[in-house]
Design goal:
alpha/beta; seven-stranded mixed β-sheet; two-stranded antiparallel ribbon
């Protein structure tokens, strides 16, 4: 089932199996937490940007790792914070907020470009968007895209984190389970 999930997610998001990969999670919250635990260090800056406000799982993940989180609404507020902060590690975009307020594609293009110019990675919380509209992650130019299965009329308790293969391979497992561990010693675990 895992391989089929990856295949369907890559197809849905417009990714290619040679350059991209999908990591399954229990839901969007797990994907968000894994991204923050791996990429964000205490004191780093994480910027949330949407049409209204970031999802609470983004705020919790940023707080959990000890980063400084700033939530922004729209492109103008994002630009202001980005200019003010010397080191931004991660930008988390919410394309379609739970309030159904939409962040326009032109704003997303500018946010991704500006974030990358600053050296920040970009993750999209696509939970509300993924089921309603086509998404081409390569066209968006983002580094990560996450959503929950139940938003796509699938079962509850599943979700995916799409990303560039090289970035996902740098991320150690956030959660463990059967059949994923290659070897375990007192000093090291390999997956």
């Amino acid at each position: 089932h895992f391989d089929r999930l990856k295949e369907l997610a890559l197809e849905h998001l417009g990714g290619s199996a040679d350059k991209h990969d999908v990591a399954p999670f229990n839901r969007l919250t797990g994907a968000t937490m894994a991204t923050h635990l791996t990429l964000v260090k205490p004191g780093d800056v994480v910027i949330g940007v949407s049409a209204s406000h970031s999802h609470p799982s983004v705020v919790r993940a940023a707080n959990h790792v000890g980063s400084r989180f700033t939530d922004t609404a729209g492109l103008a507020a994002f630009k202001e914070v980005l200019q003010r902060e010397p080191k931004v590690t991660l930008v988390v975009l919410t394309r379609l907020a739970v309030t159904y307020e939409l962040l326009p594609i032109e704003a997303i293009d500018a946010i991704v470009r500006l974030a990358h110019e600053k050296g920040a990675l970009v993750m999209v919380d696509g939970a509300q968007w993924a089921a309603h509209y086509p998404t081409d992650v390569q066209d968006l130019g983002v580094d990560f895209y996450a959503f929950s299965g139940h938003k796509l009329y699938g079962p509850t308790g599943i979700g995916v984190l799409w990303g560039n293969r090289e970035l996902l391979e740098k991320m150690p497992p956030y959660q463990g389970g059967g059949d994923m561990i290659e070897s375990v010693t007192f000093d090291k675990t390999t997956y």
